[in-house]
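Extended Data, panel c. Modelled sequence:
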Amino acid sequence: MSIVSNAKNRTISGYIEKHHIIPKSCGGSNKKENLVALTAKEHFICHLLLTKMTENNYRIKMRNSFNNIHKSFM
């Protein structure tokens, strides 16, 4: 959550990736208050952490999401 909190209070110049604070697959929306601009590295780390902090069906969804992001880096 500290990555998201820090990102809310800054402006990134250059390349950004939009990240859902509450993932869409976990009931989150595309509303402005549920989106934050992250660097590519921060986005990767957030999705990696989500695979470790969720449980059950949500963990499976987060692993799938992480695998999709991971593929884009290769």
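The chain has a mean pLDDT of 86. This feature is highlighted in the accompanying rendering.
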